[in-house]
Prior knowledge:
single chain, 278 residues, alpha+beta, 10-stranded mixed sheet, two-stranded antiparallel sheet, 5 helices, 12 strands, globular
Amino acid sequence: xxxxxxxxxxxxxxxxxxxxxxxxxxxxxxxxxxxxxxxxxxxxxxxxxxxxxxxxxxxxxxxxxxxxxxxxxxxxxxxxxxxxxxxxxxxxxxxxxxxxxxxxxxxxxxxxxxxxxxxxxxxxxxxxxxxxxxxxxxxxxxxxxxxxxxxxxxxxxxxxxxxxxxxxxxxxxxxxxxxxxxxxxxxxxxxxxxxxxxxxxxxxxxxxxxxxxxxxxxxxxxxxxxxxxxxxxxxxxxxxxxxxxxxxxxxxxxxxxxxxxxxxxxxxxxxxxxxxxx
Length: 278
């Protein structure tokens, strides 16, 4: 059972795909990755402890130059929105981007094209860069009228029915809802657990349990922003559609990844206030 408003950033990304006139949803359905995916080295260096129990990863310490894609995308948005810009210091996958913005929001959709295209190029989302496999990641934010409204936008309503408990790495306990009328190892509908101020949800199709284990492993190595947040993973045939959202003041920021949760988590762990001069 799913609460559609929880996947808002992913829906924004999918809406952008339709608008761009994508040619298809990929060539084959790949099974969700097994085990821990190989991830590139990032400036969000692995941390030995869990995300939410630690202080903010954001600091005023100097950092390496922004990734070109982030610098160009947020540079285009800067001055055209009232939202305080933040961007990932690491973009694990993707070489081209489409950006959109208004006074109260901005979104950067990242694509993996055969060759890097200019920001908002008409070639992005078409032809060889037009399959679902080409859509890589996203990040952005939406400003709400108040802090309370921003928190309400992330409110999670668990499925109906009575869950069973399950153990997760690090001494965590999750709640697992079963698919009604089904038995066996693949009868899980949704898994929910909490780490500090974060609610984490894995749902969709099998294998939800191994996907939940993957997320808990990643969060032993990468710090999420130290705010109230919601991480959702929708297990689909072409990958683990992941959305990471958190509240900062009256703004909800997000990162997302279409195929690999590690990518969304790495971007969220490396998020920093944007300064085009840094």
